[in-house]
Amino acid sequence: MAKAATSGQARAFNAMTVSRIDEEALKQIDGEKLQKIIDKPEEFIPNFIAWINNGCKISNQNTVQTLKNLAFICEILIRDFSEFVVWDRFQPRAEDKVSISLRFGGNFINWILNPMKMKKVSLVNGLKLKKFSLLKSMNDTEIQNELQNPKPIDVEIFLPLIWAMMLSQKNGEVKENGLLNNGYANIFHVKLDDNRVVAVSVFWHTSGWRLGADGFDYLGRFEVGGAFFTPATA
Questions:
Q1: At residue 24, what are phi and psi to the nearest 5 degrees?
Q2: Do residues 91 and 114 lie in contact, with contact meaning Cβ atoms separated by under 8 Å?
Q3: Are 227 and 73 in contact (CB under 8 A)?
Q4: How many whole angstroms separate alpha carbon 54 and alpha carbon 76?
Q5: Are 198 and 93 in contact (CB under 8 A)?
Q6: Angle at the Cα of 220 from the Cα atoms of 216 and 226, rounded to 5 degrees
């Protein structure tokens, strides 16, 4: 696993990069746009983060170009997952019973598990997600507005999706193209069978995953450093 750069190295990289822009390179830069960045550097930072996280390649994601309070991290492909009965997997038991140590909030049980527990679910064609990092504390409506109201994930898709993601990090492994394991929220907007859209939060807590659900904006703002996941559009 590659060693992560320190804040000092990041500042040195920034200074080195700017110092290498000579007169010839400057002629290729739109001076008016450069001046806008100089005047308001805070608007440049999310795009710079997205560029770094995309392997220093220009992304064709339109959302990346307009983000201010979220930073695009990566796309994640969740592959097909075989059919299972919800209650066979999603039980608050130790990991030797269901492969993953799980805990659930009351709303998650009442709104999601109880209505779905006897249903069979699967991820037939896989799903590609976009992962964003919160650069400021935000509520659900603010996240939706910034991303231009992305479609929520149907609960029948969300359950095998989140199971596959948790299973790949069953011991809280670090995974950039996966869930945060540092105590910050992994946020999903999920559409229930009764057509309500709720915010599902997934946390790594001590030695297992905890899943909760709340109405939009009920919890107020999610903390800086949380991650929001949404389906990637074609």
A1: -65, -40
A2: no
A3: yes
A4: 12
A5: no
A6: 90
Give 61's contacts (C-beta < 8 A, 6+ positions apart).
50, 72, 130
Q: Which is nearest to 203 in space by CA: 126, 101, 66?
A: 101
With tokens 């805070």, the residue in question is 42
Last residue of a domain, one of 64, 82, 102: 64
Q: Which amino acid, 157?
A: I
User: Per the structure block, which two tokens stand in for 147?
Assistant: 């991303």
Six-digit token pair at 234? 């074609």
Contact 129, 78 (CB under 8 A): yes
Token pair for 5: 């750069």
How many domains are there within the chain?
2
Retrieve residue 205's tokens.
């807590």
Is the residue at 79 inside a domain?
yes
**Alpha-carbon distance 10 to 200, whole Å?**
34
Q: Of the given ranges (20-34, 122-136, 155-169, 217-231), which has the lowest mean pLDDT?
A: 20-34
Count of residues for the chain? 234
Phi and psi, residue 118, nearest 5°: -95, 0
User: H-helix or E-strand containing 84?
Assistant: strand 81-85
Residue 2 lies inside a defined structural domain of this protein? no
Domain that holds residue 36: 7-64
H/E segment holding residue 230? strand 227-231
- CA–CA dist 96, 47 (Å, integer): 43
Q: How far is CA 25 from CA 29, 32, 88, in A?
A: 7, 15, 60
pLDDT category of residue 139 using cuts at 50, 70 and 90: very high
The better pLDDT of the pair 27, 120 is held by 120
